[in-house]
Design a protein that fits this description.
By secondary structure, the protein is of the alpha/beta class. It has two domains: 4-233 and 276-359, Orthogonal Bundle (Cytochrome p450); 380-465 and 509-623, P-loop containing nucleotide triphosphate hydrolases (Rossmann fold), CATH 3.40.50. It contains 23 helices and 17 strands. This is Putative ras family gtpase protein. Residues 477-494 have a biased composition (Low complexity).
Length: 635
């Protein structure tokens, strides 16, 4: 499928299954396959990749790890599939000639075994109504939706094509990535140990303790993030044509970008572009270069299953580094690569001839782990905008990213395609305000070209001058009738008669005027001040963000049909059709990196919460911190 419009229409029916919150539901199933891998370390990484793909898509592994062999020669066929895809991608008429019912029946095409395996699993999954709501369930749901909407693009055959391409692409990408991860880190003087030191530090905080390291814990390891990125290290010629090197391509010619060439360009990545150097991802200026990092494709050709692949890579890599000591038997023996649709190492396994591993001693006692906010939190909210015939229901998909430097490399990956950003600082902290610039730079470099930004000062309840710290809530008998009711003044510090806010000793350090001047100089159109504690102004932040984005769409400044706009049409139909579910807007939330004294969820001692909290409960988890974050974090 090379037509961008057809590709976009087909993808909209399968993309819900790839959302991070849906993929995370398959994490326990992934753990079962990874545990089998740890018992078969001298067998193929590819076994694990295939079985996890089966678990995530069909709720059932293919059985490679269980049997310890290449079932039906499926893995061996990957080489043929890669070469075939590379060739017919340029000569599509050959594919149309070969992919007829007769040649399919003969089984002479290189993807025959994989196709048969996938179709059998898909058929079995369709009959199994008791399976969990996995990726295939989302696809079948999308198929029913396509039928109702009369789509001529997405049908059962298209769904089958997505399934077979997912099995091939997901398994080979993860397999090659894991092999590259182990190989290159072993040839780094201290790479393996540096990641292990990160893990040991995390274990002191109660993280990375599960038998299989959780995705949340894995993505919170900065050097692991950098190492995984390093191993991963449709375009039409514009009007008048384009010249690349010594070659000029006429207008209208479809161009393909070679990922390997982009990732090894010294022009983009500097003189060490061809060196394995995870440290490049920890540099301050990396945000400006990340737009050239395209291991998962770009635009309408980007891989929808990258969420699944990333979860596998991070979990497996972290668990192996923590639990195994690995060395290369012959350090002088180097890998060779074959460049097909992806670059594949000739040595397709980690065997006794190449690696020696020793299971590390691990503590026998286990602790109960609490759910912590690591790196990012996800939430969504329906916003109603306008009245009468112009009324719209907009769904905001909110990624609340951590504000510490420790998680900055993680946070940047969630900025891509964001339509809006809420930049948050602490009104009682100059340090948090001064730390905003890097996050703004990252958002503007990586998010939608028409990014809508709002600057928000939090902790308004602490902004009053005074020296009152952790005061107990006033009792009805001691509450003066002159205390203003909740929400009547911008600096209100009371919640009816039930709760009184804590006031910082220093009070406000950043005035609204100072914040406004800074925002004006950087073309941030809106500044606001809120209190996550009392709920004051929080709903208005997201309501205003939604209205600003909607206005840009109506004025033609944002095209929802552009994949990079960050906008998706909802189930109600097209925007201009007047549907109630006009759009789904992905809004990337950023936070500052140097707050003195993190925001805490605070409750009064005794009594119930005031009923005046109202809608704030819906936003509390988005705008305040979980107890897993300590000092130096922001909302």
């Amino acid at each position: 499928m090379v037509d961008p419009r057809e590709a976009k229409e087909a993808k909209k029916y399968v993309l819900p299954g790839y959302l991070q919150r849906n993929v995370l539901q398959s994490e326990p199933a992934m753990d079962e396959s990874i545990m089998k891998l740890l018992a078969w370390m001298d067998k193929f990484f590819t076994y694990t990749a295939f079985d996890i793909t089966g678990e995530v898509i069909f709720s059932q592994p293919f059985g490679f790890l269980e049997k310890g062999e290449d079932l039906h020669g499926s893995i061996a066929m990957v080489w043929g599939v890669e070469a075939y895809i590379t060739f017919v991608g340029y000569f599509q008429w050959i594919h149309r000639l070969l992919s007829n019912p007769f040649t399919t029946w003969l089984g002479i095409l290189p993807m025959g075994h994989i196709y048969d395996t996938t179709m059998a699993a898909l058929s079995e999954r369709q009959k199994n109504s008791d399976a969990r709501f996995d990726l295939a369930a989302h696809w079948f749901q999308g198929l029913e939706r396509a039928k109702k909407e009369g789509s001529k693009i997405f049908d059962l055959r298209c769904l089958q094509a997505f399934a077979s391409s997912n099995v091939t692409a997901a398994s080979e990408t993860v397999s090659a990535g894991l092999q590259s991860f182990v190989y290159h880190l072993l040839r780094q003087p201290d790479g393996w140990q540096r990641i292990r030191d990160e893990i040991e530090a995390a274990r002191k905080d109660g993280r990375c303790e599960r038998e299989i390291i959780s995705y949340e814990d894995a993505v919170a390891l900065p050097y692991l993030q950098a190492a995984v990125k390093e191993v991963g290290f449709p375009r039409v010629a514009s009007k008048g044509g384009v010249t690349i090197g010594d070659t000029t391509f006429p207008e209208g010619v479809t161009l393909s970008i070679n990922t390997w060439v982009i990732h090894h360009s010294k022009e983009f990545w500097g003189p060490d572009a061809r060196e394995f150097k995870p440290e490049r991802w920890l540099q301050d200026d990396i945000a400006s270069k990340e737009k050239y990092f395209i291991p998962w494709g770009a635009g309408y050709t980007s891989c929808p299953g990258q969420t699944i692949a990333k979860m596998q890579l991070f979990k497996i890599a972290a668990s192996i580094v923590r639990d195994y000591d690995i060395r290369q038997v012959d350090p002088n023996k180097e890998w060779k690569w074959a460049a097909h649709f992806t670059a594949i190492p000739w040595v397709q396994y980690i065997g006794r001839d190449y690696l020696v591993r020793t299971k590390r001693h691990r503590k026998s006692e286990w602790r109960v782990l609490t759910s912590q906010t690591i790196g990012v939190e996800f939430a969504s909210k329906i916003i109603k905008v306008g009245t009468g015939a112009r009324r719209k229901r907009i769904k905001l998909q909110l990624w609340d990213t951590a504000g510490t430097e420790r998680f900055r490399s993680v946070s940047r990956s969630y900025y891509r395609g964001a339509a809006g950003a809420v930049l948050v600082y602490d009104v009682t902290s100059h340090d948090s305000f001064r730390g905003l610039q890097p996050f703004l730079n990252d958002a503007r470099a990586l998010a939608s070209p028409n990014l809508t930004t709002i600057l928000v000062g939090n902790k308004l309840d602490l902004a009053n001058d005074g020296n009152l710290i952790d005061l107990p809530p006033p009792t009805p008998s001691s509450t003066s009738s002159s205390i203003p009711p909740y929400g009547t003044t911008p600096t209100s510090t009371t919640l009816g008669t039930q709760m009184r806010a804590t006031i910082a000793p220093e009070g406000r350090e950043i005035s609204a005027a100072e914040a406004s001047r800074w925002a004006g100089g950087l073309q941030i159109p809106v500044t606001m001040e809120v209190s996550a504690f009392s709920g004051e102004g929080v709903d208005e932040v997201f309501g205003r963000l939604a209205r600003m984005i909607l206005t840009k769409i109506e004025l033609g400044e944002i095209d929802p049909d552009d994949p990079m706009s960050g906008i998706q049409y909802g189930d109600g139909g097209m925007w201009n059709a007047g549907a109630s579910d006009g759009a789904s807007i992905k809004s990337g939330m950023t936070a500052d990196s140097a707050v003195i004294g993190g925001v805490r969820r605070r409750r009064g001692r005794g009594g119930k919460r005031s009923q005046n909290w109202g809608g704030m409960r819906e936003w509390e988890d988005v705008f305040t911190l979980s107890r897993g974050r300590g000092r130096g974090n922001c909302c």
